[in-house]
Write a structure and sequence with these properties.
InterPro entries: Rieske_2Fe-2S, Rieske_2Fe-2S_sf, Ring_hydroxy_dOase_asu_C_dom, Rng_hydr_dOase-A. Keywords: 2Fe-2S, Dioxygenase, Iron, Iron-sulfur, Metal-binding, Oxidoreductase. Its cofactor is Fe cation. The protein is α+β, with helices and mostly antiparallel strands and 379 residues long. It has two domains: 226 residues, Alpha-Beta Complex (Naphthalene 1,2-dioxygenase Alpha Subunit, Chain A, domain 1); 105 residues, Rieske Iron-sulfur Protein (3-layer Sandwich). It is built from eight helices and 17 strands. The strands form four sheets. The protein has a seven-stranded antiparallel sheet, sandwiched between helices. A four-stranded antiparallel sheet has the order 4-3-2-5, with no helix packed on it. It has a three-stranded antiparallel sheet with strand order 1-10-9, with no helix packed on it. Helix 1 runs antiparallel to helix 8. The two termini are 22 Å apart. The model has no long low-confidence stretch (mean pLDDT 94).
Length: 379
C-alpha cells in the first residue's frame, strides 16, 4: 500500500503511533534520506574512535557516503567519501594515513581535504599540477561539530547553527563535565528493523523492567519523568535511577568530576532527532548512533564511556569490563526484540495499537518530530 505523508493524521498518531507503512515503504525511506538525514544535524561516530592524527573512518548514513579524518592540527574534519575525479570511493574501512590516495586513478589528498597531486594530469608532460588547478578539486567538506565526543554533521549546510540546535540539552547537562569522558568500548550492531523502531524503543521507558529485568525493576521506573527540551530533543529522567540500585561492587567507578549532589543519583536519557541516543548516568555514559541503511535495515554503534578519567586506572579494569558487558547485553536484547517487531509493527493490524498516556508521550513527540520534517519537505 502506497502512503502519502501529507495525509497522515497527527491526532491519529498520538493515539495509535505512526502508520505501519512508514516502517517498510521504500519511497518513505528514500524521502527520509533527504528530508531527515540531509537537512538537520545527524551523528556519525565518536571522536575518540579517531585518537591519532591521520585516523580515518568511513561512514554511510542514508544515501550519503562520508569520511571522517583527524587532521594534522588534531581537529576532526568530515568530507564526502568520493574522489573529485570520477567519484570513486576513497576509503572502505578504518585506517591511519598521512596522505589519502584514491585507489582508482591515484589522486592524492592531504588530511585537510586539499588535493595534493594527480598523476600525469597534463598527459605526457612532466609538469607538476599547478596550485591553481588543484585549488578547486579538494574533497567536498561537510559542515560538522563535535559535542560530548559525538561527531555531528549537517549535509545540506543550511541547518541552524549547531550551538543553537544543541543548546537546550547542553544547558540541562551543564553540571556534567563531558571533557572527562573516556571511551571504554565501542561495538557495532546490525538490525533488520527500520531505524525509527530503534529510536522509538530507546525512548520507551515502559519496556525496560520487562525486557531488561536483569538490570532494572518495575519499582525503579515508576518515578520516570518526561523531558521535552525542543523540537528536536526529548528524553526521560529517573531522579533516583542510579541511587536506588544496589551496588554491584565494593569499589564502584567514580562519578563525573564536580557533579552536584542533586545529580549523583540521577539517570537521564535523550533522543536527539533523528539518530542520536544518549544515556547519562553519574558514572558512565552510553551513546548509540543509529544509521539507516534500507527500509528494513539499520546499523548501530554503541559506545560506552567512563564519566571520570580516574576510571581508566588498572584497578578499575574489572568494573569497566562488567559495565561494558552489562550494557551490551541490554542492547543485544533490544536488537533481538526489534528484529521481531519489524514484522509485526508493519502488519496492517498494527494501526490499531493504543499508546498509553502515562508512558508513551516521549514516543509521541518523536513521531511528531518525524512527521513534521517529512511533511515540511512535501511543501
Amino acid at each position: 500500500m502506497k502512503i502519502d505523508v501529507k495525509n497522515i493524521d497527527v491526532e491519529q498518531t498520538q493515539q495509535h503511533g505512526l502508520p505501519p507503512e512508514v516502517f517498510k515503504a521504500t519511497e518513505i525511506f528514500d524521502k527520509e534520506c533527504d528530508a531527515v538525514f540531509r537537512q538537520g544535524w545527524v551523528s556519525l561516530a565518536s571522536a575518540q574512535q579517531l585518537p591519532e592524527v591521520g585516523d580515518m573512518l568511513p561512514v554511510k548514513i542514508g544515501n550519503a557516503s562520508l569520511l571522517i579524518m583527524r587532521g594534522a592540527d588534531d581537529t576532526i574534519g568530515v568530507f564526502h567519501n568520493i574522489c573529485r575525479h570520477k567519484a570513486a570511493p576513497l576509503v572502505d574501512s578504518a585506517c591511519r594515513k598521512r596522505v589519502l590516495v584514491c585507489p582508482y586513478h591515484r589522486w592524492a589528498y592531504n588530511l585537510d581535504g586539499s588535493l595534493r597531486a594527480a598523476p600525469k594530469y597534463y598527459g605526457d608532460s612532466e609538469q607538476p599540477m599547478s596550485a591553481q588547478d588543484k585549488a578547486d578539486k579538494g574533497l567536498l567538506p561537510v559542515r560538522s561539530a563535535v559535542w560530548w565526543d559525538t561527531i555531528f554533521v549537517n549535509l545540506s549546510g543550511d541547518a541552524e547553527p549547531f550551538e543553537e540546535f544543541i543548546r537546550p540539552l547542553d544547558q540541562l547537562l551543564e553540571g556534567y563535565d563531558s571533557d572527562g569522558l573516556r571511551m571504554i568500548s565501542t561495538t557495532e550492531y546490525q538490525s533488520s528493523a527500520n531505524w525509527k523502531l530503534a529510536v522509538d524503543n530507546f525512548l520507551d521507558g515502559y519496556h525496560v523492567p520487562f525486557v531488561h529485568s536483569q538490570a532494572v525493576t518495575l519499582d525503579s521506573v515508576m518515578n520516570q519523568e518526561d523531558l521535552f527540551l525542543s523540537d528536536n530533543i526529548a528524553g526521560l529522567r529517573l531522579p533516583t535511577g542510579a541511587s536506588d540500585k544496589p551496588a554491584k561492587t565494593d569499589k564502584p567507578l567514580p562519578h563525573f568530576r564536580h557533579l552536584t549532589e542533586e545529580n549523583v543519583g540521577t539517570q537521564q536519557w535523550f533522543g536527539i532527532f533523528p539518530n542520536t541516543l544518549l544515556f547519562v548516568d553519574p558514572v558512565w555514559v552510553q551513546l548509540i548512533i543509529v544509521r539507516p541503511e534500507a527500509p528494513t535495515a539499520a546499523s548501530e554503534t554503541l559506545t560506552i564511556y567512563a564519566a571520570n578519567p580516574e576510571s581508566m586506572a588498572d584497578e578499575f579494569a574489572p568494573q569497566r569490563e562488567a559495565l561494558s558487558a552489562a550494557l551490551n547485553e541490554v542492547n543485544q536484547q533490544d536488537i533481538e526484540l526489534l528484529d521481531k517487531l519489524q514484522f509485526t509493527r508493519t502488519a496492517p493490524e498494527a494501526s490499531q495499537g493504543h499508546l498509553v498516556q502515562a508512558w508513551d508521550q516521549v514516543n509521541v513527540r518523536f513521531h511528531q518530530m518525524w512527521l513534521q520534517k517529512m511533511q515540511a519537505a512535501e511543501g
